[in-house]
Design a protein that fits this description.
- By secondary structure, the chain is α+β, with helices and mostly antiparallel strands.
- The protein has a domain of 89 residues.
- The protein contains two helices and nine strands, in the order ααβββββββββ.
- A five-stranded antiparallel beta sheet has the order 4-3-2-1-9.
- The longest helix has 15 residues.
- It is elongated, with a radius of gyration of 28 Å.
- The termini are far apart.
């Protein structure tokens, strides 16, 4: 219905326009207007953010696997639970993360010698420091992950 209506309107506009062979300015004739009610059913086959409930994509950023660019260190971070948790690749231990307010829009999570800097807006880890890194290093979200088990399991 919407496409047909658009085509009819476009055809009506083109039919009423005078044919011009030279670039001249001609006043267009007035166009008749009418009120038309169009009822449309919309089916959205993807999630829409509502600023209350995270979409699947937003939630996937809150439980994800990250690694350093050189691939030497990788970890899963789970920000969907309280307290937040992380597990370093090759370790069986789940770390409990303590949040600390960082600079604007940033939350820092600390667990022993591990430090994670996370964007509040996207939930993405932007910097990481651990016992095998030299200072803070950027990390790459390289895979989705499943939520981590509770601490102590």
């Amino acid at each position: 219905m919407k496409r047909t209506l658009s085509i009819l309107l476009a055809a009506a506009c083109h039919a009423s326009a005078p044919a011009a062979t030279a670039p001249t300015l001609v006043a267009a004739p007035p166009i008749a207007t009418a009120k038309v009610r169009v009822d449309v059913d919309v089916h959205v086959d993807h999630e829409t953010a509502d600023s209350v409930h995270p979409t699947r994509f937003q939630a996937s950023r809150r439980v994800a696997h990250y690694s350093t660019p050189n691939g030497q260190t990788g970890f899963v971070i789970d920000l969907t639970s309280e307290p937040a948790r992380a597990r370093v690749d090759g370790s069986a231990y789940v770390l409990e993360l303590t949040p600390r307010r960082g600079s604007s829009g940033i939350v820092e999570y600390i667990a022993g010698s591990y430090w994670f800097r996370v964007s509040e807006e996207t939930g993405a880890v932007v910097l990481f420091a651990g016992p095998t890194t030299r200072g803070a290093t950027p990390v790459v979200h390289d895979a989705d992950a499943e939520p981590l088990p509770p601490i102590g399991f």
